[in-house]
Design goal:
Layout: E1 7-11, H1 18-23, H2 27-30, E2 33-38, H3 47-53, E3 57-60, H4 67-78, H5 84-105, H6 112-119, E4 122-125
Parallel strand pairs: 1-2, 2-3
Antiparallel strand pairs: 3-4
Helix pairs in contact: 4-5, 5-6
Length: about 140
């Protein structure tokens, strides 16, 4: 944040409170946050906090999520210069397809619908943000 005009932050950690760490940084640095993606379970609700700290967009998961599956697809779509919304929608769809395959493989032990209920990512802030856009 000190050296670049905009930074995307990927929090690849279990349920976490990294938002509290970032809150201690100077406001002028936090304003350089473009996208914050959080794999942590139950961290979707941090969206307003991240936006309040200066992030332009935040993507998170609502419950005990299969965010590792989502992230696998999300990073690829986001780096292809789509919007956050496009990357998120495509990744949620591909994650659901994968979870439906797992439902079949596990003979219904895992149900895609319940896994998606806890896993489907959502965005706070500017969902039309693009990778090449600078604040």
């Amino acid at each position: 944040l000190e050296h670049y005009p905009c930074v995307d932050l990927y929090l690849l950690a279990h349920s976490n409170e990294y938002v509290e760490w970032v809150a201690r940084l100077p406001a002028e640095r936090r304003q350089r946050l473009r996208l914050v993606y959080n794999t942590g379970c139950h961290n979707q609700s941090q969206g307003p906090k991240w936006l309040g700290l200066g992030a332009k967009a935040y993507v998170g998961h609502p419950g005990e999520s299969w965010s590792s599956v989502f992230y696998y697809f999300f990073l690829r779509h986001w780096t292809r210069v789509g919007t956050v919304q496009e990357a998120m929608d495509a990744s949620n769809h591909l994650m659901e397809t994968t979870l439906k395959e797992w439902e079949v493989i596990t003979l219904g032990h895992w149900t895609a619908a319940s896994l998606m209920e806890n896993s489907a990512a959502s965005c706070y802030g500017d969902a039309l943000l693009r990778l090449e856009a600078h604040p």
